[in-house]
Every structure is written in structure tokens, then in C-alpha cells.
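Problem: given the chain below (180 residues), write out its structure.
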Amino acid sequence: VGADLGLRFETGLFGTVVGASIANLGGDSRFEGSAITQILDDNEQVLVTGRDISGSFETVPLELPTYFRFGFQIDLAGTPTSVISNDPRHALGAMIDIRDAVDTQAQPSFALEYAFDDLVFLRGGKFVRNEFVDRDFSDGLAGGIRLHIPLGSRRLKLSYAYMGEGQLDNSQTFTVNFEN
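Solution.
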């Protein structure tokens, strides 16, 4: 059994929101069940027995990868309480997030989002991985665009996101949503 707990606090100051969470709280876990059971056919065996042999892998308990996150977000432009401008057609938000896990060092993230007239959204950010692997700057670099297209009383939302993943190259996500 594992649990995630979090809280979000809107400070009322310049659109600042503070959040914290702890994830993967729980005891040790182990893999069990049909996913680790195997039947060796007679032709797969080193010493042929003339029949199939059932078996299972022995697993060891693993600690859940518990981590703590703390972050804050601030409205730089676009809301009545924004730091720079309160023009609602041009919104700009900034976010800083720090993730600290039991098995890694603290890993910060930084991001900006610009929105024009609640129709076009541009995002950019950087996730800094602190593991002992040689990485270039593009690892953890992210960007995206989202479009809100009015369709009568509904809205079509199209999103594209990209993130550099180092040795895994990159991940790209396309999303389509309809909402009332």
C-alpha cells in the first residue's frame, strides 16, 4: 500500500501559490503473481525432463521511492494581482519546484508559461537531474504549445509537449480535449 499527500496554499500575494507533497509513502513492496511465474517447455530446458516445469522468480522486498516536492508559482502578468502587468490578454506565470527523493539528490525545475487571450499558450522549462550521469544541457529541457479553439458552446484544446530525455532521446506528447 502506498499513498501520496499534498497541499496547495494560495497566498493572495501577487497570485503566488505555494505547494508541497510527499509521494509514495508506504512500506516495502515486492512483485508477486502471474507476472513472475514461468513455465519452461520441454524444449526450453537445459536438461530435458520430458514434461513442462513450472517455476517462479524469487523477488526481494523493495522500498517505495518516496519523495518530497516543494514549489511555488507566481503570476507575473495577466491577473489583477500580477507583479508586472494586470492586462488579462497577456498572462505570464513562473514556477519553481524542488523534488528531493530518498534515492537521489534534490532536483530543481524551472518553468514559464505565456498565454495570449486564453487562446494560445507557450511553455518552456528545465528539469535539472542531479544523478551521476554525464548529461548535456538539453536533457530535461522542455517546451510546449496549447491552443484553445472555441467551437460553439464547447472548446477544443490541442496540446503538444516536448522534453529532452538524455540517453532516451526525448518524449513528445500530443493531447486533444473537448470541454464545455
